[in-house]
Design goal:
The protein is α/β, with parallel strands linked by helices. About 35% of the residues lie in helices and about 25% in strands. Strand 24 and strand 25 form a beta hairpin. The N terminus and C terminus are likely disordered.
Length: about 625
């Protein structure tokens, strides 16, 4: 007779790895629904119980075990859906390291995917039969993809289940490689083990306070850390049913997200800042009148700069739908920490801090009244969860005093093992020590921020900070000013960065134009609006502005602006330009030619270095 799940206490069903966890749920909660997928973003088309997921995972694992040894890497190429979940757990069941990636769209550059395959040294690619037919024809001439053994997991016979061999796993066993978004260069594979995942899930549960009675809903991409860990693995950890939908369905019609929350009475759901902004702009009053968001207890937000104005406007816009401002839960994390680092308190409105802009430009934190003109409002990402968080001077490598901005350093069980096959970068990023005390190791996040009353406030990225005339300027602040300067400019689709002109740092802007303005765009009017707004808000002179076509700005797989790629496109002239302006066109042309040559040289040197590193790794 099968034991009842309620007979077991919390401590008894916690396990050291995800395979043990799913096997336990399949045994004691076999018929409980684990995942439901909304095929068109609105209709429940398929679902998986814990028993069904365990069965599919064992069949896939058995097929993998017949071909590959423990520790081999498997590329996962799936559209969002339940097939991806079964394949991911199939890899875990076989002891094969999963490498989630997104299948490139037609006519899309496959260089990032190719870089992942090469770096991971993947031997097999898992996908569906429909995608396999398309993929084989598209990649026929590509040597890297032709080396892969392709398997359509939805065609694996059920008889494979019988030959599955349980693999010895521990908390230290590598589970998957989470490739970073590649916002500043070639994507790197973060090594995440089972212990990282289990500890991270415990941290999220502590922050979100979810219970088996909660209801999750996610449109986030499953190949990205927030979508995979937060949207797929976390519900498994809690034993919460999860409603899933495609990010494309959400982007095309944001109403689908809130409609699904309303229909399924979801308690936990969220996304980056841009998702809430889309809902504000795209959901009509008529659509709002049909929504009931009173069940929504945790509306988490993270993964990109959180704008207090967006949260305030969302709360006001959807208050009549039953949404409560206290539901917002700003959080902070990254792939290198598995997912979460810190989070705010559930059922408490987000904490904001107004600081003096001039002081912030000098890396000092001076709190002021929010109604002051020279102030900037920063939102808290809560306190660190089960880990140590320090603010460190990135130059002296010593801990900053309480009133200083510095780099965020982290130590704890959430921190991943390093970057796959990149010992130098692993050492630099994951093995940092304080210069004066020798305390460590810490993860260097590359994020700038400060602690105030024990809470973490993020101000920007070290590599993105623009330094002009000795003052620090955060690109996200300038980008917000730019997009608000003229209605022709598309929201969340601009990049601000510095370029060196005659030994002086100058400000450059790349900004998308709204589609309905492309045909009759008044370039001079738009550029003048940008220049005036930036001068008024930031006291800066814009050196160059490039207006580009709708949907063409470089973004990461999670939707973040790739400022490094925008800068490179600006230097090489490879952006999809509809109009541009420069303070000194002739000087700019000479500068671009020189910079292009320099960038080319550095790119070649980087390629040679990577090739040497790969040879060294192969030799070992």
């Amino acid at each position: 007779m099968t034991a009842c799940f309620d007979d077991y206490s919390e401590s008894e069903y916690k396990r050291s790895n995800l395979v043990e966890l799913l096997r336990f749920r399949a045994q004691y909660q076999p018929d409980k629904t684990a995942y439901i997928f909304l095929q068109d973003g609105e209709t429940a088309s398929s679902k998986l119980t814990y028993q069904e997921l365990d069965y599919q995972a064992r069949a896939i694992a058995s097929r993998l075990q017949s071909l590959y040894t423990k520790g081999s890497r498997a590329l996962l190429l799936y559209q969002p859906g339940l097939d991806f979940i079964a394949a991911f757990f199939g890899c875990l069941y076989a002891g094969v390291v999963a490498v989630p990636a997104y299948p490139p769209r037609h006519n899309q550059n496959i260089s990032r995917l190719q870089a992942i395959v090469t770096d991971a040294k993947a031997m097999v690619a898992l996908t569906t039969a429909s995608l396999l037919n398309d993929t084989e024809s598209r990649f026929a001439q590509n040597a890297e993809f032709n080396k892969l053994h392709w398997i359509a997991t939805d065609r694996i016979a059920s008889t494979w289940v019988e030959s599955w061999q349980e693999t010895q796993l521990s908390s230290h066993t590598l589970a998957f490689l989470q490739y970073t978004s590649g916002s500043t260069g070639t994507p790197k594979g973060v090594m995440v083990n089972h212990g990282n995942l289990m500890h991270n899930s415990a941290s999220i549960q502590k922050c979100f306070a979810d219970t088996p009675d909660s209801q999750g809903l996610s449109w986030l991409p499953p190949y990205h850390d927030m979508g995979l860990i937060g949207g797929i693995l976390q519900p498994m950890y809690i034993g919460v049913p999860m409603i899933l939908m495609s990010p494309v369905e959400f982007i095309q019609k944001p109403f689908r997200w809130l409609q699904a929350i309303s229909h399924f009475k979801a308690t936990t759901s969220g996304g980056p800042n841009f998702a809430y902004d889309l809902c504000i702009r795209k959901i009509t009053p008529k659509q709002r009148a049909t929504l009931d968001l009173s069940s929504w207890e945790v509306a988490f937000t993270g993964a990109e700069p959180i704008r207090p104005q967006t949260l305030e406007q969302f709360a006001r816009t959807f208050a009549d739908c039953g949404f409560r401002r206290e539901a917002f839960l700003p959080c902070y994390g990254m792939a290198e920490t598995t997912l979460i680092v810190s989070g705010s308190v559930k059922t408490q409105a987000p904490t904001v801090c107004s600081v003096d802009v001039t002081a912030l430009e000098q890396n000092r934190v001076v709190t002021v009244n929010s109604d002051r003109n020279e102030s900037r409002t920063v939102i808290s990402c809560g306190q660190g969860i089960d880990q140590k968080v320090l603010i460190v001077d990135p130059e002296s490598l010593t801990q900053c005093p309480a009133n200083k901005v510095g780099e965020i350093w982290i130590s704890g069980a959430n921190v991943a093992q390093g970057y796959w096959n990149r010992p130098e970068e692993t050492n630099q990023t994951f093995h940092a020590y304080l210069a004066d005390t020798g305390e460590g190791p810490f993860l260097r996040t590359g994020d700038l921020g400060f602690l105030h009353d024990g809470e973490i406030f993020i101000t920007g990225r070290i590599k993105d900070v623009i330094i002009i005339r000795g003052q620090n300027h955060y690109p996200q602040d300038i980008e917000l000013t730019v997009e608000k300067s003229h209605p022709a400019l598309r929201k969340n689709c601009g990049a601000a960065f510095a370029v060196e002109v005659k030994n002086t740092e100058q400000l450059a802007i790349v900004q998308e134009v709204e589609r309905n303005y492309l045909r009759k765009l008044n370039i001079k009017e738009v550029v003048d609006s940008i220049k005036q707004a930036v001068a008024a808000e930031h006291g800066l002179q814009v050196y160059a502005t490039v207006l580009i076509k709708t949907g063409s700005i470089p973004k990461t797989s999670s939707g973040k602006i790739q400022r490094h790629a925008c800068r490179s496109g600006f230097l090489t002239g490879s952006l999809n330009v509809v109009g541009d302006w420069s303070e000194n066109p002739q000087s700019k042309a000479e500068f671009l030619n020189l910079q292009a040559e320099v960038e080319s040289i550095f790119q070649k040197l980087s390629t040679v270095k990577q090739q040497k590193s790969a040879v060294g790794n192969d030799a070992e």
